[in-house]
Design brief:
Blueprint: E1 12-16, H1 26-40, E2 44-49, E3 62-65, E4 68-71, E5 74-80, H2 85-94, E6 98-101, H3 106-118, E7 122-125, H4 130-133, H5 143-155, E8 159-162, H6 165-173, E9 180-182, H7 199-203, E10 213-217, H8 226-238, E11 244-248, H9 254-260, E12 265-268, H10 272-280, E13 284-287, H11 296-303, E14 308-311, H12 316-319, E15 326-329, H13 334-346, H14 348-362, H15 367-385
Parallel strand pairs: 1-2, 1-6, 2-3, 6-7, 7-8, 8-9, 10-11, 10-13, 11-12, 13-14, 14-15
Antiparallel strand pairs: 4-5
Helix pairs in contact: 1-15, 8-13, 11-14
Organism: Caenibius tardaugens NBRC 16725
Protein name: Putative glycosyltransferase
Keywords: Transferase
Length: 389
């Protein structure tokens, strides 16, 4: 390994990502924030990921392209195809002292093999529950096979980090590894805060000051629970519970959702200060997804002082305190979701109290403090691999 590595500034990290910046989502934004933190501490980082002509945002740090192909039926995403000779030469020349893989794809498998041959420590970070996606495409029977493939991948790594304790517990139960710890997520409190609420912006969508807005935030894809969301809205409508719906985000299922929920306000994709304004202008966030490992949107809503009604699933269970800062409902329980939302719609004092509790909880999530734990994990793994250890 050469010199003894004891400081973050001595780290040379090769990061492998299936999507670093070509489509914006919570996972790749977390990776870019991590790289920014590491570079500010003096570490050297090279990122190996698919590249496209018009990415969603500028990559943080040095990005090396790897071969990839568009995923059928989800062409906005790309599937890494392995390590090209050029990428392998670049990796050899960079000579990392730690490898970080962020998705169990073909390229990451190759990179893990490369690192193991050289005794380089490997950290894997888990960002989404890939095995659950098949449920939304009629292929749920493949879930055990996917779990087995992922188990083999993660057990070849030296350690695994998950974004929430609830997700870490799932990984332990699935026997994905023996060294599993937490790399949480942070929230930018300059962007996400109650003061960003904007009545004029709400009114531009036909939403009055006294209307109670149920919000959805995220990419508009079926695996985010859009069917559960829309079925719940139907139940509220049938019960004549007054409310307005605000959808923030975009994606391939937008047309489906527009047809499914006529009269809904669609704000489209928002980012930065515009996103903070959009979230703060909601009254309650409804997050029915069971595929999250952390739930960035849940934390952002909490920071804006909103109560959150969420599926009792990985991620949200580690953020929302049931009946304190929101409600955790059994996944898919349409009637229970509707009743929880109805309570918030009809009880503004409870809505305000639970929103304030969520905002208080969100103050614990500082990005630099959280990313420092990853850097400390790198150093621990390097130390454990040291021949002098």
């Amino acid at each position: 390994m050469g010199q003894i590595v004891t400081e973050i500034s001595q780290l040379r990290i090769a990061l492998f990502s299936g999507n670093y910046n070509y489509v914006r989502d919570g996972a790749n934004q977390a990776l870019n924030r991590l790289v920014d933190y590491l570079l500010r501490q003096g570490a050297q980082v090279r990122v190996y990921a698919p590249v496209v002509e018009n990415p969603a945002f500028e990559a943080t740090g040095t990005l090396i392209g790897i071969p990839s192909m568009a995923i059928p039926r989800r062409k906005e995403y790309r599937f890494p195809l392995g390590l090209s000779n050029a990428a392998r030469r670049d990796l050899e020349a960079f000579a990392p002292n730690v490898l970080h893989v962020s998705s169990p794809d073909v390229t990451a498998h190759r990179a893990v093999g490369w690192a193991r041959q050289r005794g380089i420590p490997i950290l894997a970070s888990v960002h989404t529950r890939f095995e659950t996606y098949m449920r939304y495409y009629g292929l749920g029977f493949t879930e055990p096979l996917l779990e087995a493939i992922m188990r083999r991948f993660y057990r070849r790594c030296d350690a695994v980090v998950a974004p929430s304790e609830s997700m870490a517990q799932v990984l332990r139960e699935q026997r994905m590894g023996f060294d599993i710890s937490i790399w949480s997520r942070g929230v930018d409190r300059d962007i996400f805060q109650p003061a960003k609420r904007d009545s004029a912006w709400r009114q531009s969508f036909g939403i009055a000051d006294n209307d109670v807005v149920i919000g959805f935030l995220g990419r508009l894809v079926m695996e985010k629970g859009l069917d559960v969301f829309s079925d719940t809205m139907d139940e509220l409508r049938r019960a004549n519970v007054p409310h307005k719906i605000l959808i923030v985000g975009d994606g391939p299922a937008r047309g489906w959702l527009e047809n499914r929920l006529p009269g809904t306000a669609f704000a489209g994709f928002q980012s930065g200060a515009d996103l903070g304004r959009a979230v703060a202008s909601m009254d309650v966030l409804f997050n029915p997804s069971v595929t999250e490992t952390f739930g960035n949107v849940t934390l952002e809503a909490m920071a804006c002082g909103l109560p959150v009604v969420a599926a009792a699933a990985t991620g949200s269970e580690s953020l929302v305190a049931d009946s304190v800062s929101g409600r955790l409902i059994r996944p898919g329980a349409i009637h229970n979701f509707a009743e929880a939302l109805r309570t918030y719609i009809e009880n503004p004092e409870l809505r305000r109290a639970h929103g304030q509790a969520g905002e208080t909880r969100s103050q614990e999530f500082d990005w630099d403090r959280i990313n420092h734990t990853v850097a400390e994990t790198y150093l621990r793994l390097v130390r454990q691999k040291s021949p002098n250890n």
